[in-house]
Amino acid sequence: MTTQAPTGKDLEMLRAKAQADIQNLRARVDGLDQDSISLILEEARSHYAWTDKPVTDEQIHRIYDITKMGSTSMNSCPARFVHVRSKEGKEKLAKSLKPANVAKMMGAPVTTIIAYDLDFWQELPKLFPHEDRRKFFEGKTEHIENTAFRNSTLQGGYFMIAARAIGLDVGAMSGFSNENVDEEFFAGTSIKSNFLCNLGYADEKALFQRLPRFEFSEVCRFA
Questions:
Q1: CB of 153 closer than 8 Å to CB of 194
Q2: Neighbours of 183 (CB within 10 A)
Q3: Rounded to whole angstroms, what are the CA distances from 16 to 19, 55, 189?
Q4: How far apart are CA 145 and CA 157, in angstroms?
Q5: Which of 202, 214, 218, 200 is CA-nearest to residue 45?
Q6: Cβ-based neighbours of 9, under 8 Å, separated by 6 or more
Q7: Contact predicate 149/117, CB 8 Å
């Protein structure tokens, strides 16, 4: 579906509102408090074991509503999400996992497949109505793949932060066969899997000590 781009006075009003909205946001909030930063990143952990407390439909919808607002190139939004929580879905997904990851996935209330649609660029008239950008992708297989993979990975990061922000725990996984997941969940489509993310309320007894990180001076520089 093509969205008509605003023009003239309508465009001026929308731009003025966008600018005012950001100014108002900055007037209300100039940064997150330390506890919020700790919750989403600084003290957050990847989890491997889970309690049986369920994740609700409302929570999953809320995570997406936050995630979808994150920036992607040309507002392309190539990520697609499959929330696996049924017994049948979990059994299908288990076929693709390395043995060490099966229990982690089966114990989680929800395992989300973060995927990407190689036909994302055909939706650009809706998502980027100012100019038809499809010509930058048509027939360019490598560019399509790179853009979809890069931006769906970015959206997967937004997804994890959003889940933590509403009080859930996450555990991302890459120890699986993308080919098997694609065959089980996306056969006959233009969608490919990127990575998996377990969602739920963690059983902290499975945690071990935090692993080392690089210091600023080891990996950062100014130019």
A1: yes
A2: 15
A3: 5, 39, 41
A4: 18
A5: 202
A6: none
A7: no
What mean pLDDT comes out for the span 24-46? 96
Q: Which residues does 135 contact at the CB level (< 8 Å), separation at least 6?
A: none
Residue type, 133: R
CB 133 within 8 A of CB 218: no
| Domains recognised in the chain with CATH numbers | 45-204 (3.40.109.10)
Amino acid letter at 20?
A
Q: Which residue, chain included where needed, has tokens 């952990």?
A: 45
Q: Which tens digits make up the pLDDT trace of 60-85?
A: 999 999 999 999 999 999 999 999 99
Q: Residue 147 has which token pair?
A: 């853009």
Q: Exposure of 40 by Cβ count < 10 A (0-12 exposed, 13-18 middle, 19+ buried)?
A: middle
